[in-house]
């Protein structure tokens, strides 16, 4: 039983990988532990969003991912 964490944009560079498999179920505290302190610090910022099952969470701290789910870490997007 596992959850896939996807690291996007600059978070992928910090993680050194595009995705990581972790044990399911996964909640907010488990996510912070799974990604390590540097990425956890980034996730604490309001501008970084978390999506689960293809939907951006209104409150990322309510994360509850189950077996087979995909959790995407979405850094701020700049545009021009």
From TrEMBL:
SUPFAM superfamilies: MoaD/ThiS. InterPro entries: Beta-grasp_dom_sf (IPR012675), Mopterin_synth/thiamin_S_b (IPR016155), ThiS/MoaD-like (IPR003749). This is MoaD/ThiS family protein.
């Amino acid at each position: 039983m596992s959850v896939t964490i996807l690291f996007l944009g600059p978070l992928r560079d910090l993680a050194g990988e595009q995705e990581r498999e972790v044990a399911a179920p996964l909640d907010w505290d488990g996510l912070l532990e799974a990604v390590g302190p540097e990425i956890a610090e980034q996730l604490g910022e309001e501008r970084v969003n978390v999506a689960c099952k293809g939907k951006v969470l209104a409150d990322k701290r309510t994360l509850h991912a189950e077996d087979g789910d995909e959790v995407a870490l979405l850094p701020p997007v700049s545009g021009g």
